[in-house]
Amino acid sequence: MRVARVVAVSALVFLGVTAMVGAIPMLLHPGGEPWQMPQTLLARSSFHSYLVPGIILLLAIGLMSFWVAWLAVRRRGGYGCWVIAQGCVLAGWLVVQMVMLRMVILPHYFYGAVAVVLVVTGGVMVRGGKGVG
Question: What is the pTM of this model?
Answer without folding.
Answer: 0.92
